[in-house]
Each structure stands twice: as C-alpha cells, then as structure tokens.
Amino acid sequence: MTADALSKAVTALVTGVTAHADTVPAIPTYPYVLITSSFPRVSDRSQARSVHALQVRIRTTVVGLSDTSVLVTGQKVSDALEHAEVEVPGYVLGRVESVPNEQPILEDLDVTVNSRHPQYAVLDWTMTASRAP
Length: 133
Description:
elongated, 8 strands
C-alpha cells in the first residue's frame, strides 16, 4: 500500500468539505482539509518474525479563515473519519480511530489572505492493516 493510495481513499470519505490528498493548490478555497498518510509500519510480528499487522497513521490539517471555520470543518472531518472503513486494494484495513494530540488551533503566519492569516488545526488518526490473503 502506498501512502498516496491511502490518502486518496481517506479523502474520498470526507464529504461536504473541500479535501485534498497530499498537496494543496497554489490558491486554495477556504476552508479545506489536507490529508496525508504514512507508509504502513509493522506493529505486530509472530515469534517466527513474520508480519501479523501493520499500523497506518493519517494526518488531517484543517485550514480556515477563522477559528470557528476550523472548528466546524474539523467536526465534519471527525464525523466522516471516526470508525470509518477505508478500502485500499490488496489490504484489509481496520476502522479509523482518532489519536488525541491536544494541539490548539494555530495561526499560519507564513500566509496572508485578505490581510489576515489563515488558522489551522491538526487532527491525527490511526488504523491497523494487513495484506489481503
């Protein structure tokens, strides 16, 4: 499974909000969600060292022009992803689970839109995976 394939599959689950897998256009429409994922990593092996399970991490960065926009969009993302089932050919995936990260909503001081800075929050997710038989 590639990180790109997983990001695209997760992006398809997020509806009612502009969602981008892996990259954002040069001039995005606000609010939006950037979805990225890691490569699967071994989380469990047998005594013979064969792989039993993989763990996958997903990061959603919710971006808006106000903290309220980030909160509303973040709730839509959470509603769409918590316990969702993702399908990627060749793998059996567990349900998506949130990972508490307690990060606050932050201001992106590197970007200015209409004389103000967008705000963003990062939400992390995980799921287990194994290769399909």
